[in-house]
């Protein structure tokens, strides 16, 4: 077929290269070196639309329904096969409409339709967005059809399906509305009715899903333009429905109708907030009095009997669950809070709301069902307190003390639900406590109110709260067993009045100077920790005391912190999971605590606690009865990882028993992986322990592999998808350890046997595997590239490159793999494959060119050419300038000339040169792109191109710009691709990050692929001898001048004066 790549000419690519008579030919034939084009037939077809007809899958309602039914099968093989088939259906670009038709088919079992609606939502979430990095698997025609029919389809479905379809609408709207879906608001409004409440509720729910993002969007002209557009088509209809619905509420004839109407009121209020959260629209300002009168009326109702005259209301009085009236009140208070904080001047109804809300807060009971209302009410009061305009109001009539007593003290006390959570779900209790002010609870809302009062009335608030704290401590001292909740309240109040500012990962960063935290620690906290068996009737006091250390670790003295560590270690064994967990996470945070940019606990200080901590943590873990319970507490796994990375020089001495325990835990959780965060830290621990142990004792590698390989084999055979990426990463690390062994000669049989299964197509179907598999194959090439090529493994692996290269989401992995191949496979073994490789690249440039892909190709040309730098540097250093003709650049030019004469020149001038300057992320890329293109333009073959001198000057100008503009960007950054203490080429040094500095701020765990941060990255450097870019460029320039190369001189003369000055600078630096 004929392929245009943006040049004046076209080149021809034989379509036959893309197909193979045997789909799994690479597994059938051990050696493919006789037919380099067979690499192009491996795995999947690059372009699904051009596959032979026999490969096109039929996608119908029946086939989708059968797959959805099978996906619910208890048999894992049936489920996995169904999931794979559904994925294949998506790839056909023919799935969207049959899937919607299935959802709308009333003849199909409702459970299948519900599954179809859920699948449709997730399908839209995965596939609707169109970017340079995603494949477009929904055709334009299907997109238009979906947007045309989806609203009508949604409102005709049962409520169980409306929510899923509504979420799909919101996803589509996030991408397409309003520019590519101008009819959305019209479609929504057309279905609103003053009387059809059921339909209204579906439309209002969906409208909220569309408008909800306004709450978190940054203010911008584009956002305000969109909101104005929405108001123009939606506001009037919304207003009419709001008024009509609220008028119908007291007229409801039965309980079902009443509840449906109140649901509608709730959605209307939620949308009110959506449309008002960024700015006060004129439409709502003009009708504020009417809206607020209605809202205020709902705040006055104490129960549904006051709203309606229905005699047969029989609503359960549930103390724990908020009813519809409480939900409505909470939404109204949210709106009042918004108007008070943002639109106070226009909000004339504020005084009446203030009085009503104050009365509510002082009258509502402590039942959990009122929590939402109370929390919103306290947040409103916090806004009032922080407003300087009301400062004198709150300073008068003893209001500070009244607020403390009637609002804060009342709602800061430990609730029954808190106690139950502590006992029944201790891990959730701890996580909620760690969320602090982010968690929705009465306690946290009250604590936020305290902080607001401290901003305006610091001394007055502190004095009032300290009086209550002393009173509570006095109550506790009189009867510690009976009055332990008084101590709990006092502990919480001290934390509240002491904290002025905090960061989740760092703890408290600013405190109240009027509170002596170290004194309170000595007098009221330490007493609960000196004996592990104390407070047996009130373990929450222990939990609070440990939390105090966690929160104020930056403020407590070094001596207090250091003396608390042995006590915390003991409490890892506490029989309360919450206490044990708080002790564990506090130790982990203290071990990364810094004073004056140095760790408070260096390796020497941590060492004495290593064995006791491991003993206690492992004891806790192995005591769990099921794999799910074992993996429940990820804080244990994180502490294990932290100890290993903090004691990396000493940990090898006790590595064997630790490794045995970790493998036993891994074997257990393999039975049912349940907590991805626990699993991540478990693999971090295994990986880092392997690395540190083998770095000091290479002979330990055999023992590590003997323990890991059986479990890894189980994971791969059982296709435990959550674990497979971790396995591949650790195998990659182990391979590199082998490579660094002075006795290494060739791959061990275990790794040879593993390679073939790694090439199985099903492994590459799971996106999460791809980054780790590419790293692993790169490690194979780094370790034994020649061996792989000589054994005929190059063809199937290059087939993987073809598969990855065909997808926008994976093309960067394709080039990552290709970089390893061209660097570690000798050119003599690689040459026969280069033409089909470049034909694949050119075909992709022509068919699916994206800015990202252009950058990838630009970098690859530089990478490939930079391999010549070693030979060129050697020739220059020996003054043997005639040997400067690099074979990689020569081969690159000749290969592309075989495809089309002058092809590389056309690619450079038409596509690549302009992207040299903006392709770079880090110094490693700056280095090889600069070096590579210098090698390219200074190869004698380069001057055989027509207009080569103009092209030369253009490339050199872009290289100069890249080097000079990038100096400031990389001179201070840490670059993980460069070894420790290696010059960054600009006169500074880049150091590898210390593994012990890993912190919560790093996204260690991600849902699709989780990189093990404690493992070393594979260094792929095509120009390892180059330490300083300017010196290298200067040495090449000096060599060209010394040989009297007129082509070079004439090319340089075309540069701008500023660029020539840099050439002179480089010349002098060589």
Keywords:
two-stranded antiparallel sheet; 2% strand; disordered N terminus; mainly alpha; 1070 residues; 8 strands; single chain; two-stranded antiparallel ribbon; 49 helices
Number of helices: 49
Strand percentage lies at: under 5%
Largest sheet: 2 strands, antiparallel
**Structural shape:** globular
Class from secondary-structure proportions: mainly alpha
Mean pLDDT: 89
Low-confidence stretches: 1-56, 970-997, 1000-1005
CA distance, first residue to last residue:
49 Å
Family: Belongs to the XPO2/CSE1 family.
GO cellular component, one term: cytosol
Keywords: Cytoplasm, Nucleus, Protein transport, Transport
Domain Importin N-terminal: 82-156
Give an account of the 3D structure.
The protein has 1070 residues and is an all-alpha fold. Among the domains are: 112 residues; 128 residues; 145 residues, no CATH class. It is built from 49 helices and 8 strands. A hairpin with a 3-residue loop joins strand 3 and strand 4. The relative contact order is 0.05. InterPro entries: ARM-like, ARM-type_fold, Importin-beta_N, XPO2_C, XPO2_central. Keywords: Cytoplasm, Nucleus, Protein transport, Transport.
TL;DR of this structure?
The chain is built from 49 helices and 8 strands. The chain starts with a strand and ends with a helix. This is Exportin-2.
